[in-house]
């Protein structure tokens, strides 16, 4: 194992100690899997589980379907301030919230999150590379 490989492994181990989810690579299935008790065997690969990524909504229907999954329904919060706003209207150009009228989906994605802390957008499918 090289010094660089050792540094990378130490970084993953420290992340595990800090409470991050660690994954191990299964060569036979060519997939990463979560592990709660990594063995740290040098012949296996370990990594910190990638965080999910999100993108802005493409249209009103996609936004509506995602809004239905979050409680309390129609309540959002600002990402920068912890003020809450209620949903007012929605169309394919964007959405209106009390205090954030006329947001397009791109700017709403940058400024707003659901009240449960989830980004105001669509979770992209993770690639299990």
What characteristics describe this protein?
129 residues; alpha+beta; 2 domains; five-stranded antiparallel β-sheet; three-stranded antiparallel β-sheet
Strands of the largest sheet, in order across it? 8-7-6-5-9
Please describe the biggest sheet, giving its number of strands, its sense, and whether it closes into a barrel: 5 strands, antiparallel
Strand portion: 25-35%
Shape: elongated
For the record, the count of structural domains works out to: 2
- Helix percent reads 10-25%
Radius of gyration over alpha carbons? Answer: 20 Å
User: What is the string of SSEs from the N terminus onward?
Assistant: HEEEEHEEEEHEE
User: Which structural class fits the helix and strand makeup?
Assistant: alpha+beta
Mean pLDDT: 88
Distance between the termini: 23 Å
* Structure annotation, total helices: 3
Low confidence ranges: none
Secondary structure tally: strands: 10
What's the short story on this structure?
With 129 residues, the chain is α+β, with helices and mostly antiparallel strands.
Protein described:
This protein is of the alpha+beta class and 129 residues long. The protein has 2 domains: 3-48, no CATH class; 54-123, no CATH class. It is 23% helix and 32% strand. The protein has helices spanning 3-17, 60-67, 105-111; strands spanning 22-26, 31-35, 46-48, 54-55, 75-78, 84-91, 94-97, 100-104, 112-114, 122-123. The strands form 3 sheets. It has a 5-stranded antiparallel beta sheet. The protein is elongated and about 55 Å long. The mean pLDDT is 88.
């Amino acid at each position: 194992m090289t010094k660089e490989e050792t540094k990378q492994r130490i970084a993953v181990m420290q992340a595990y100690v800090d409470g991050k989810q660690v994954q191990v690579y299964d060569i036979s299935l060519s997939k990463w899997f979560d592990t709660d008790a990594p063995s740290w065997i040098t012949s296996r690969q370990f990594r910190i589980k990638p965080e999910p990524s999100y993108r802005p909504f493409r249209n009103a229907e996609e936004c509506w379907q995602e809004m239905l999954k979050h409680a309390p329904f129609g309540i959002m919060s600002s990402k920068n301030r912890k003020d809450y706003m209620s949903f007012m209207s929605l169309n394919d150009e964007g959405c209106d919230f009390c205090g954030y009228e006329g947001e397009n989906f791109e700017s709403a994605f940058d400024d707003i999150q659901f009240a449960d802390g989830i980004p105001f957008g669509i979770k992209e499918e993770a690639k299990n590379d």
